[in-house]
Protein backbone atom coordinates (compact mmCIF):
# COMPACT_ATOMS: atom_id res chain seq x y z
CA UNK A 1 0.00 0.00 0.00
CA UNK A 2 1.32 3.40 -1.02
CA UNK A 3 0.44 6.40 1.10
CA UNK A 4 0.90 10.03 0.14
CA UNK A 5 1.20 12.44 3.04
CA UNK A 6 0.66 16.17 2.68
CA UNK A 7 1.73 18.39 5.55
CA UNK A 8 4.44 16.03 6.74
CA UNK A 9 6.47 18.85 8.29
CA UNK A 10 3.65 19.94 10.59
CA UNK A 11 2.79 18.68 14.04
CA UNK A 12 0.29 16.03 12.99
CA UNK A 13 2.08 15.06 9.76
CA UNK A 14 5.33 14.33 11.60
CA UNK A 15 3.51 11.98 13.98
CA UNK A 16 1.64 10.19 11.20
CA UNK A 17 4.84 9.70 9.24
CA UNK A 18 6.73 8.39 12.25
CA UNK A 19 3.93 5.97 13.11
CA UNK A 20 3.18 4.55 9.65
CA UNK A 21 6.51 4.73 7.80
CA UNK A 22 7.70 1.51 9.43
CA UNK A 23 4.88 -0.50 7.85
CA UNK A 24 3.97 1.41 4.68
CA UNK A 25 5.60 3.16 1.77
CA UNK A 26 4.97 6.86 2.36
CA UNK A 27 5.62 9.64 -0.12
CA UNK A 28 5.80 13.12 1.36
CA UNK A 29 4.72 15.96 -0.92
CA UNK A 30 5.41 19.54 0.08
CA UNK A 31 2.72 21.98 -1.00
CA UNK A 32 5.10 24.90 -0.47
CA UNK A 33 6.81 23.76 -3.68
CA UNK A 34 3.52 23.42 -5.56
CA UNK A 35 3.22 25.49 -8.74
CA UNK A 36 0.55 28.16 -8.85
CA UNK A 37 -2.89 26.83 -9.78
CA UNK A 38 -2.82 28.60 -13.16
CA UNK A 39 0.68 27.50 -14.18
CA UNK A 40 1.27 24.73 -16.72
CA UNK A 41 3.14 22.60 -14.19
CA UNK A 42 0.17 22.40 -11.82
CA UNK A 43 -1.40 19.37 -13.54
CA UNK A 44 1.99 17.62 -13.54
CA UNK A 45 2.19 18.33 -9.83
CA UNK A 46 -1.24 16.74 -9.29
CA UNK A 47 -0.10 13.68 -11.27
CA UNK A 48 2.41 12.93 -8.49
CA UNK A 49 -0.52 11.68 -6.43
CA UNK A 50 -1.70 9.14 -9.02
CA UNK A 51 0.51 6.33 -7.69
CA UNK A 52 -0.89 6.49 -4.16
CA UNK A 53 -3.60 4.28 -2.72
CA UNK A 54 -4.25 6.59 0.21
CA UNK A 55 -3.83 10.35 0.40
CA UNK A 56 -3.70 11.88 3.88
CA UNK A 57 -4.07 15.64 3.82
CA UNK A 58 -2.64 17.25 6.94
CA UNK A 59 -1.54 20.35 5.04
CA UNK A 60 -2.97 23.59 6.36
CA UNK A 61 -1.86 26.99 7.45
CA UNK A 62 -3.03 27.73 11.01
CA UNK A 63 -2.86 31.49 10.35
CA UNK A 64 -3.79 31.89 6.69
CA UNK A 65 -3.08 35.33 5.30
CA UNK A 66 -2.05 35.02 1.66
CA UNK A 67 -4.09 33.87 -1.31
CA UNK A 68 -1.88 30.75 -1.45
CA UNK A 69 -2.54 29.93 2.24
CA UNK A 70 -6.29 30.06 1.66
CA UNK A 71 -5.94 28.02 -1.55
CA UNK A 72 -4.16 25.24 0.37
CA UNK A 73 -6.69 25.29 3.22
CA UNK A 74 -9.89 25.70 1.18
CA UNK A 75 -9.54 24.70 -2.48
CA UNK A 76 -6.64 22.33 -2.97
CA UNK A 77 -8.21 19.27 -1.29
CA UNK A 78 -11.23 19.30 -3.64
CA UNK A 79 -9.10 20.04 -6.71
CA UNK A 80 -6.84 17.10 -5.88
CA UNK A 81 -9.82 14.82 -5.20
CA UNK A 82 -11.41 15.74 -8.54
CA UNK A 83 -8.14 15.22 -10.39
CA UNK A 84 -7.73 11.71 -9.00
CA UNK A 85 -11.36 10.83 -9.65
CA UNK A 86 -11.15 12.15 -13.23
CA UNK A 87 -8.20 9.85 -13.86
CA UNK A 88 -10.30 6.88 -12.66
CA UNK A 89 -7.85 6.33 -9.87
CA UNK A 90 -8.98 4.12 -7.00
CA UNK A 91 -7.92 5.88 -3.84
CA UNK A 92 -8.89 6.75 -0.29
CA UNK A 93 -8.78 10.42 0.59
CA UNK A 94 -8.43 11.44 4.24
CA UNK A 95 -8.74 15.12 5.07
CA UNK A 96 -7.68 16.34 8.50
CA UNK A 97 -9.78 19.16 9.85
CA UNK A 98 -10.70 20.57 13.23
CA UNK A 99 -13.62 20.21 15.61
CA UNK A 100 -13.69 24.03 15.59
CA UNK A 101 -15.76 23.89 12.38
CA UNK A 102 -18.70 22.73 14.51
CA UNK A 103 -18.48 25.70 16.89
CA UNK A 104 -20.52 28.52 15.30
CA UNK A 105 -18.84 31.19 17.41
CA UNK A 106 -15.39 30.38 15.98
CA UNK A 107 -14.72 33.10 13.40
CA UNK A 108 -10.93 32.90 13.07
CA UNK A 109 -9.53 32.57 9.55
CA UNK A 110 -8.27 29.01 10.09
CA UNK A 111 -11.65 27.71 11.22
CA UNK A 112 -13.50 29.55 8.45
CA UNK A 113 -11.12 28.16 5.82
CA UNK A 114 -11.56 24.60 7.16
CA UNK A 115 -15.36 25.01 7.08
CA UNK A 116 -15.15 26.03 3.43
CA UNK A 117 -12.92 23.07 2.62
CA UNK A 118 -15.28 20.62 4.30
CA UNK A 119 -18.24 22.11 2.46
CA UNK A 120 -16.46 21.65 -0.87
CA UNK A 121 -15.64 18.03 -0.01
CA UNK A 122 -19.17 17.29 1.24
CA UNK A 123 -20.47 15.21 -1.69
CA UNK A 124 -17.27 13.22 -2.16
CA UNK A 125 -16.08 9.98 -0.63
CA UNK A 126 -13.56 11.85 1.49
CA UNK A 127 -13.07 10.78 5.09
CA UNK A 128 -12.90 13.90 7.22
CA UNK A 129 -11.25 13.61 10.61
CA UNK A 130 -11.82 16.48 13.01
CA UNK A 131 -9.21 16.55 15.69
CA UNK A 132 -10.13 18.25 18.94
CA UNK A 133 -6.73 18.51 20.59
CA UNK A 134 -3.16 17.55 19.80
CA UNK A 135 -0.81 16.55 22.59
CA UNK A 136 2.88 15.71 22.38
CA UNK A 137 3.48 13.15 25.16
CA UNK A 138 7.26 13.51 25.25
CA UNK A 139 7.32 17.29 25.38
CA UNK A 140 4.15 17.58 27.45
CA UNK A 141 2.53 20.44 25.55
CA UNK A 142 -0.65 21.13 23.67
CA UNK A 143 -0.37 22.60 20.20
CA UNK A 144 -1.52 26.20 20.05
CA UNK A 145 -4.01 27.33 17.38
Description:
This protein is α/β, with parallel strands linked by helices and 145 residues long. It has helices spanning 11-20, 41-47, 67-86, 109-121, and strands spanning 2-6, 25-29, 54-57, 92-98, 127-131, 135-136, 141-142. Helix 3 packs parallel to helix 4. The termini are far apart.
Write the layout of secondary structure elements.
Layout: E1 2-6, H1 11-20, E2 25-29, H2 41-47, E3 54-57, H3 67-86, E4 92-98, H4 109-121, E5 127-131, E6 135-136, E7 141-142
Helix pairs in contact: 3-4
Task: Give the key terms.
alpha/beta, 145 residues, two-stranded antiparallel ribbon, five-stranded parallel beta sheet, 34% helix
Number of helices: 4
Following the backbone from N to C, one meets helices and strands in this order, namely: EHEHEHEHEEE
Largest sheet: 5 strands, parallel
Total DSSP E strands: 7
Question: Gyration radius, to the nearest Å?
Answer: 15 Å
Order of strands in the sheet with most strands: 2-1-3-4-5
Q: Output the structural class.
A: alpha/beta
Briefly, what is this?
This protein has helices at residues 11-20, 41-47, 67-86, 109-121, and strands at residues 2-6, 25-29, 54-57, 92-98, 127-131, 135-136, 141-142. It is of the alpha/beta class. The strands form two sheets. A five-stranded parallel sheet has the order 2-1-3-4-5, with helices on both faces. Strands 6-7 form a two-stranded antiparallel sheet.
Amino acid sequence: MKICLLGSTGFLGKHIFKRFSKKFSITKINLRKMPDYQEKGFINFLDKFNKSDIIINCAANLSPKSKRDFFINEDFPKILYNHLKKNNKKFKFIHMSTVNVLIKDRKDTYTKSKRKSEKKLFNTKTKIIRLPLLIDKKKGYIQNN
